Amino acid sequence: MVEVIEWVNPGEDEIIWRYPNEVIKWGAQLIVHEYEVAVFMRDGKIYDVLGPGRHTLTTQNLPLLYKLVGGSNSPFKATIIFVSMKQFQGRYGGETQTRELAPVKYYGVYWFKVAD
Questions:
Q1: How far is CA 102 from CA 58, 94, 106, 114, in A?
Q2: How confident is the model at residue 69 (pLDDT cuts 50, 70, 90)?
Q3: CA distances, 89 to each of 45, 74, 86, 116 (Å)
Q4: Higher-scoring residue by pLDDT: 12, 83
Q5: Cα dist from 53 to 38, 45, 75, 81, 114, whole Å
Q6: Residues 29, 4: contact at Cβ < 8 Å?
Q7: CA-wise closest residue to 33 among 83, 69, 102
Q8: What residue segments make up the domains of the chain, in order of their start?
């Protein structure tokens, strides 16, 4: 049976998600949805990044990771982090008072997204 790696039903405010299994098999199907990227990490270093699409994990699309594991076709260990590239809304606000004890409230919104 072919392993399928996918971020299913991300929440509206979720920016990143870590795939829970670190043992990955060559030939697994990686599904990266529109507005996402999948980042392959090992030992705290980023080795490969795959964009939107359906990818069969092979030595051709993960060349740096393949060199690290020594060319073995057996399962390898890596962390897969999915990153949403959508635009997100943040909110800020607070309240204070002036020296004359007049209350001052401030609030607003800002937009951000992961660029790199």
A1: 65, 14, 13, 39
A2: confident
A3: 29, 43, 10, 18
A4: 83
A5: 10, 23, 22, 16, 19
A6: yes
A7: 83
A8: 4-86
81 pLDDT band, cuts 50/70/90, is very high
Each residue of 29-49: pLDDT tens digit?
Answer: 999 999 999 999 988 899 899
Distance CA 76, CA 3 (A): 13
Rounded CA-CA distance 66/68 in Å is 5
66 phi and psi angles, rounded to 5 deg: -60, -40
Residue 18 has which token pair?
Answer: 């870590």
Q: Which distant-in-sequence residues (6+ apart) come within 8 Å of 8 by Cβ?
A: none
DSSP letter for each residue of the chain: ---EEE--S--TT--EEE-S--EE-TT-EEEE-TTEEEEEEETTEEEEEE-SEEEE--TTT-HHHHHHTTT--S-EE-EEEEEE-S-EEEEEEEEEE-TT--EEEEEEEEEE----
